[in-house]
Design the sequence.
């Protein structure tokens, strides 16, 4: 264990491990498949990062080992890769938006370049090309973050997670050709899991025997509070009262994007420094808002559940929920962002009687009728102009709101229908596909020679013409990092905007576009089958989670059902098996 402590001190500057970290690291280092249940902010990433630094290629011990990290959170993988590089550890991330040649370069570097970590999204495991290249890499461990996503009992089931066990088995077969006793350990990590989910995670990942390390979910410094409110206005009044009594940073969670701004404006009108955050904002806006809040220049951030993953602000004193989440797992994870510095903090849920009807409406939105789901499937094919028997392995841009508007479809049920079709295996919906910027030169070469351009723009155009020979006929994807290295400056985007304003080029900036990937050829709608496991079973489990969330919220109101005066903390701990 001393070797691991030396690694911890050398790279992370910590003198010792937090409780349970050392035991998890020893288990993984001994080659054991391991499930670690640690609350949000408990230091889960070190449990695979530290042992990987001491591990070698199991096929060739003279070479460094590589940890494959599977996580659904693109922002989190980018942050962790950036942090690892800052402390001198080689790491890469592969996520949507990278071009094929970039992915090939990353995989080649992981094969030959002594890299220690490769972060990928679970959807990447769907690619036959990627799976084939994985078998060439010196993988010594697989870390599965947000492991509850593999469980159909879980609140955030992701079908691609089911492929992880098969991937590990393929890698094991490669190892056995070199060593009969070879074994690639899996470390599964999650902050929230009920006893049923704990068992299913280990079964689906094919652990040879169950091996769980559980850190108590009890947080002595964090008080859980459930309060009854008379309605929306009373919730705001109570929020102002709480923020007046409990000073310090705060997160307020709501369900809709529009409501984030509405509540932030109300708070600002009362003299508080508040801002809003949701998934529809640009990356630049998200970064700016997050940094101002992290620095304490904004006291309150009003957000949807898009805010919080990977954010470790220790001095959050209150997390207030104005709307009920879909599940206790989701609530517990969001509430757990308060008080990470160990000082007194409060997680407060405000419940009004009309919230009950709103929760029941969510069931209809999450599980629209089967006829509606089949109609969405048919409309998808027509809208994308995919003929019956076509589309297999093709990927199409999918501006979701435009699709709904063109077909006069309601947003929430349509989104849920697409998710159900994904679970059923007909399509894959990629919600965060980041596209590279594109450029087309509109003038001929002769016309360019007659233009009087600043030297920086002339050099940029020459570089573009040299690297992208088709740039005169169609917009081509360009890579800012490569261009910056060649031209010697970094404001590539600004120069491209200048050239576009002069009519010299067409410039399409980087953006994030959802995509639909057809995992099967388009079928006649009469042949589409939604299995019971994708609909009725998941509906039943969703209804159970909704009901449990309501039972927790109704702790705010005296009732015979709570004759034993169960506290919110006791309710949560019991739900998670403590």
Sequence:
């Amino acid at each position: 264990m001393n070797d691991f402590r030396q690694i911890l001190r050398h790279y992370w500057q910590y003198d010792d491990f937090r409780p349970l970290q050392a035991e998890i690291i020893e288990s993984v280092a001994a080659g054991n498949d391991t499930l670690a249940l640690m609350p949000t902010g408990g230091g889960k990433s070190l449990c695979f990062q530290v042992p990987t630094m001491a591990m070698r290629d199991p096929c060739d011990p003279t070479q460094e080992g590589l940890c494959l990290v599977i996580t659904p959170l693109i922002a989190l993988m980018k942050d962790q890769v950036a942090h690892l590089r800052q402390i001198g550890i080689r790491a890469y991330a592969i996520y949507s938006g990278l071009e094929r040649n970039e992915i090939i370069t990353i995989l080649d570097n992981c094969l030959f370049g002594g890299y220690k970590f490769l972060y990928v999204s679970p959807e990447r495991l769907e690619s036959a090309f990627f799976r084939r290249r994985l078998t060439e890499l010196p993988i010594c461990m697989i870390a599965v973050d947000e492991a509850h996503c593999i469980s159909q009992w879980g609140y955030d089931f992701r079908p691609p997670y089911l492929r992880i066990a098969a991937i590990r088995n393929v890698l094991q077969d490669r190892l056995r050709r070199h060593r009969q006793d070879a074994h690639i350990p899996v470390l599964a990590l999650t902050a929230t899991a009920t006893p049923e989910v704990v068992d299913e995670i280990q079964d689906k990942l094919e652990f040879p025997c169950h091996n769980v390390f559980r850190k108590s979910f009890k947080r002595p410094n964090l008080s859980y509070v459930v309060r009854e409110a008379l309605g929306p206005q009373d919730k705001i009044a109570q929020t102002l009262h709480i923020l007046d009594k409990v000073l310090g940073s705060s997160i307020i969670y709501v369900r809709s994007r529009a409501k984030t701004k509405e509540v932030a404006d109300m708070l600002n009108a009362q003299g508080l420094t508040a801002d809003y955050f949701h998934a529809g904002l640009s990356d630049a806006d998200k970064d700016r808002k997050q940094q101002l809040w992290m620095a304490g220049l904004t006291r309150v951030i009003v957000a949807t559940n898009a805010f919080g993953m990977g954010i470790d602000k220790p001095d959050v004193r209150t997390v207030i929920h104005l709307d009920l989440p879909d599940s206790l797992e989701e609530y517990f994870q969001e509430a757990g962002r308060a008080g990470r510095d160990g000082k007194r903090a409060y997680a407060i849920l405000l419940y009004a009687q009309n919230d009950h009807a709103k929760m029941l409406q969510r069931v209809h939105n999450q599980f629209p009728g089967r006829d509606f789901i089949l109609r969405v499937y048919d409309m998808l094919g027509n809208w994308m102009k995919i003929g019956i028997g076509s589309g297999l392995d093709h990927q199409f841009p999918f501006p979701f709101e435009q699709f709904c508007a063109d077909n006069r479809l309601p947003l929430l049920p349509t989104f849920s229908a697409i998710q159900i079709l994904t679970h059923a295996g007909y399509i894959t919906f990629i919600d965060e596909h980041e596209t590279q910027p594109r450029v087309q030169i509109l003038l001929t070469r002769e016309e360019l020679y007659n233009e009087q351009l600043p030297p920086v723009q002339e050099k940029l155009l020459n570089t573009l013409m040299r690297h992208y020979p088709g740039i005169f006929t169609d917009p081509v994807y360009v890579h800012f990092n490569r261009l910056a290295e060649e031209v010697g400056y970094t404001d590539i985007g600004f120069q491209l905007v200048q050239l576009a304003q002069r009519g010299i080029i067409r410039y399409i900036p980087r953006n994030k576009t959802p995509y639909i990937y057809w995992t099967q050829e388009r079928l006649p709608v009469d042949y589409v089958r939604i299995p019971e496991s994708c609909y009725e079973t998941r509906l039943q489990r969703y209804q159970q989670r909704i009901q449990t969330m309501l039972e927790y919220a109704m702790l705010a109101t005296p009732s015979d059902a709570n004759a034993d005066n169960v506290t919110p903390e006791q309710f949560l701990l019991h739900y998670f098996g403590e």
